[in-house]
Automatic annotation (TrEMBL):
PANTHER family assigned: GLYCYL-RADICAL ENZYME ACTIVATING ENZYME YJJW-RELATED (PTHR30352:SF13), PYRUVATE FORMATE-LYASE-ACTIVATING ENZYME (PTHR30352)
Domain Radical SAM core: 13-226
Cofactor(s) needed by this chain: [4Fe-4S] cluster
Protein name in UniProt: Anaerobic ribonucleoside-triphosphate reductase activating protein
Pfam family, one: Radical_SAM
Amino acid sequence: MFIAALQKTTLLDYPGRLACIVFLANCNFKCPFCYSKEIVLEEEIKNILPLKEGDFFDFLKKRKGKLEAVVICGGEPTINPTLLSFCQEIKSLGYKVKLDTNGSNPVMVKKLLKENLIDYVAIDLKTSKEKYQKLTGSLIKNVAEKVNQTLSLLKESKIDWEVRTTCVPGFIDKEDILKIAQWAKGAPKYYLQNFRPQKTLDPAFEKVKPYSSQEMEEMRQIASPFFMSCDVR
Ligand code: SF4
């Protein structure tokens, strides 16, 4: 497990719980608007001094009774073959686990759900199905179908979860939002996130002007009828 970084406290990333965030390096997507190139691009990853797993678990042991949950994000956590045992160890210490995923590995998500190793999932729906391959820069065959399988697993599960979309001008428009909302219908919560033109994987995206608050609200209104809860954040 390549632990690229640890954020020791967050009140924002696990709904209603005090959590830490563990960032795992590497991703099977190469979204051009990604803000995390330091843990996505191989040439950047090699400059990272990873946190040892033992040190991470020592940290969790010391914080027992103070922290309640661990958010596992990336990169893409599910591409790590040892994610199951990693979650098992976190759970054995009494923590809740939230997984942030791009949804590309339904096989791993199915195992995690079956073993009760995740309590909350945030899945990104990057765009509408037909634009998926291009936008994510993914070499995975039929990537939208893989994401769809993960989405179906979550819809059938008993855990709490949410769907998120980063609204990147030029890639996500109102038509896409409607298609994504129809696709994700049945999710308990849907969040639209505005794009931030900062240290993007493709530098050209640093020149893209984000949507205005008014435009974000208009997209929220399009998605809103499909969900119990739908917000911009
Ligand atoms: S935005 Fe997420 S899925 Fe896309 S490359 Fe970055 S970490 Fe991977």
